[in-house]
Amino acid sequence: MKISDYSFDLPKEQIAQYPPEERGTANLMVIDRLDGSIEHKNMQNFTDYIDDNTVVVFNNSRVRKARLFATTDDSGGKVEFFMLSKTEKNQWEVMVSKAKKQVVGRSYTFEGGAKGRITRIISTNHRIVEFDTDINDDYLDQYAHIPLPPYIKRGDDNADSERYQTVFSKEIGSCAAPTASLHFTQDILDKIKEKGADIAFVTLHVGLGTFAPVRTEYLDDHDMHYEDFYISDESATIIENAKKAGKKILAVGTTSVRTLESSWVDGKLLRGTRSTNLFIKPGYEFKVVDRMFTNFHTPESTLLVLVSTFATKTLIDKAYKEAVDSDYMFFSYGDAMLIM
After folding, report:
1. What is the mean pLDDT of residues 227-244?
2. Phi/psi zone of residue 234: left (φ > 0), alpha (ψ -120 to 50 degrees), beta?
3. What pTM does this model have?
4. What angle do CA 163, 210, 46 make, to 5 degrees?
5. Which of 87, 161, 279, 299 has the most CB atoms around its CB within 10 Å?
6. For 33-45, b where at least 16 C-beta lie within 10 A, e where not — what string?
7. Furthest-apart CA atoms within the chain: distance in Å
8. Which of 303, 318, 117 is nearest to 209 (CA)?
9. What EC number(s) does this enzyme carry (predicted)?
10. Domains in the chain: ranges and CATH
11. Integer distance in angstroms from the first to the last C-alpha of the chain?
């Protein structure tokens, strides 16, 4: 199939620029894969679809405040650095703006007074920067900015520090939020447990590749990016026992889906830290996930392909058209979908 088959028209005013005023109040579209029905609900209705025959799986990765600004020591120009990963003590791999000017040896003064200089060029806009102090997550929490997606056309504000994180975020390392989980409040989590359902957590650190466009005409020619994930023995045991008992595995977000599907071997989940470049596309047979909770995704994206593979392209096309016609909000801060 072609990636152009996964396009749709979306008015720009339906691209959510801010989260709902109150977490847990977004629109919820519920679609049934068996009969093709579509219901319009609210996030407060989510637990109506949960019972003691369900395990809900969340991604507990936490977004790193990764956008850090600096001035060049020679000219005073402003440069933006995206902190990708710490390579060794006081050194980070970064993406950098105005890349042609950022050459080996150039030095900068960062927010908070830290000093740094480029020691190596990795690729067109990737560099290694060596700092005069330890740039850790405490420093980034104080001086860096939340990396909002490119389709949110504004700078981050104080509210994003909370709203672009899940209420259960724990393991720092994502470049973007596992956005389906942004809809869940502690109250909703408590109600899930009250219904007798189990909750399990996995960790997949969302990489910048999640925003990378598919540049090939055909899906089979696309090289999927790698992302690191972790599954604990506790979570694996909960999910394995549920599958043996015939319970439903409801994965919250495409990151949870890819984590589970990448790890299922001979009726068991692989434990520990691994990486995946699994591209779920037509022809894929799901081994673990029975139900999916997700946001509304960007046109011609691997995420939309994944959801369309799970629910059939015909049904997702119908659901997306109905969402547009019903003034749903789309993408990271937008509304949600539950696929039964």
Report:
1. 98
2. alpha
3. 0.95
4. 50
5. 279
6. eeeeebeeeebee
7. 66
8. 303
9. 2.4.99.17
10. 3-63+166-339 (3.40.1780.10), 67-143 (2.40.10.240)
11. 25
Token pair in block for residue 23: 């977490």
Alpha-carbon distance of 301 to 285, in angstroms, equals: 20
pLDDT tens by residue, 299-312: 999 999 999 999 99
Chain segment 178-202, per-residue pLDDT in tens: 999 999 999 999 999 999 999 999 9
Dihedral Cα 230, 278, 63, 214, nearest 10 deg? 170
User: Locate tokens 């019903």: which residue?
Assistant: 326
Which pairing describes strands 54-59 and 248-252: parallel, antiparallel, or unpaired? parallel
The pLDDT of residue 212: 81
How many other C-beta atoms can be found within 10 angstroms of the C-beta atom of residue 77?
Answer: 13
How far, in Å, CA of 13 to CA of 36, rounded?
A: 28
